[in-house]
Amino acid sequence: MQPQEVMNNLQFSLTCFQRTISVFTEEDSTFTPEEEMMSVAQQIAHVGQTAKWFCDATMKGAFDLDFEAHAREISSCTSVTSAKETLVDAFHQVITAIQEVDEAWLAEKMPPGPILGGAPRYAVLMSIEEHAAHHRGSLAVYARLLGKVPPMPYGDM
To answer: Do the beta carbons of residue 132 and residue 18 sit within 8 Å?
Structure first.
């Protein structure tokens, strides 16, 4: 897989995600359907955090498996505006990192491990798309629960 292809896919994923979350206002930041679930702002920040997590793992060859620390990091996020900035910054950091690699590097296998062990590096990076799509769907449900209609992620492109 070519680096440009990975970057294009990630940019498209970000664009689709941004369309879905465009309906949220600052007043929606702390909404959560149930007490133990992530809020709107936390889910958005989590997608950015996880994009960087996948990228860092790809670059370092190992995943940081301290999930409690990751959860603590986003638990204080109470602003949709801040979370959206975190998201965009994270995707741009990933895309910038990919600009520095080549096709051969992307094809190299990750070391054995519990998450994508033995998978090519590009597959790890492409997992960012899958993770974002998962949370895009959750946030579309959150929007509906708030009485909002998220735009079709692929419309008007």
So the answer is: no
Domain of residue 99, CATH code: 1.20.120.450
Question: What are the C-alpha distances in Å from 127 to residues 24, 76, 79?
Answer: 25, 25, 26
| Phi-psi group of 3: left, alpha or beta (phi > 0 → left; psi -120 to 50 → alpha; rest → beta) | alpha
Confirm whether 155 is domain-assigned: no
- pLDDT score recorded for residue 131: 97
Using the predicted structure, report yes or no on whether residue 155 has a pLDDT greater than 80. no
Q: Let me know if residue 156 belongs to a domain.
A: no
Q: Name the residue range of residue 111's domain.
A: 3-145
* Tens-place pLDDT, residues 117-135: 999 999 999 999 999 999 9
Q: How many domains does the chain have?
A: 1
pTM: 0.95
Average pLDDT of 102-111?
96
Cα distances from 144 to residues 15, 42, 100, in angstroms, run 20, 17, 40
